[in-house]
């Protein structure tokens, strides 16, 4: 079970599941997820949803995923324990899963929050969870305004010692398109004088739904991958660093897809 502080690489153990769990992973997982969110939301409304509570509910989501056979593989976590200052985490965005899981990985080592779109802090129930974690909120209507918001509000969080998770893609995508992966995270790090920690992920085990995007199919046949890159110092305009992050993410996704095809 994903219930220990992740200080080293982690791979979910194989579990003997019931026929029901194997056959109906989504109907089993989502009631558990909703229960976790409702409990977290109650704490949020009471101003009780602190960093420890965030870690605990994030771990509960991980355990709920594992309970229906989803396996997590988290690599190069040990570098997070070595971080001695806030940083900007930059990675690809594939599904809802990473928003729920990343706090259990990063928050134990560094206070962290996310850059999120306005609709998430207006989402029923879940909004109380996000607002409690003081995210940087963008409108996703005017890229210039969003850039200004991230630079100013992200900079303020970093000054307070809070790291920022930035998903440079405009939306969740099952496939990685470098053309949609902007350099906002690198620019924020350069402006704030902090390092960038790139990460790559493959989280399509939690699919994007057709009617409700957050409630897609749970597919335990697909392993969930997270891999963290060594911190990078941004020099000059940051173009080389941005190109390296794109190359890193593409390389990891290609590797994981090969491994999936060879199973």
Strand order of the largest sheet: 1-2-8-7-3-6-4-5
Main β-sheet description: 8 strands, mixed
Shape: globular
Number of helices: 8
The low-confidence parts are 1-5
Residues in β-strands, percent: 5-15%
Number of strands: 8
Provide the structure class: alpha/beta
Distance between the termini: 24 Å
- Overall average residue pLDDT: 92
SSE series: EHHHEEHEHEHEHEEH
Helix content: 40-55%
The rounded Rg comes to 18 Å
Can you offer a commentary on this structure?
It is a single chain. By secondary structure, the protein is an alpha/beta fold. The chain has helices at 19-23, 25-45, 51-67, 97-106, 126-132, 143-159, 184-192, 239-261, and strands at residues 10-11, 72-75, 87-91, 112-117, 136-138, 163-166, 195-202, 224-228. It has an eight-stranded mixed β-sheet with strand order 1-2-8-7-3-6-4-5, with helices on both faces. Helix 5 links the parallel strand 4 (112-117) and strand 5. It is globular, with a radius of gyration of 18 Å. It starts with 9 loop residues before the first strand and ends with a helix.
Brief summary:
By secondary structure, this protein is α/β, with parallel strands linked by helices.
Name some characteristics of this structure.
single chain, 263 residues, alpha/beta, 14% strand, disordered N terminus
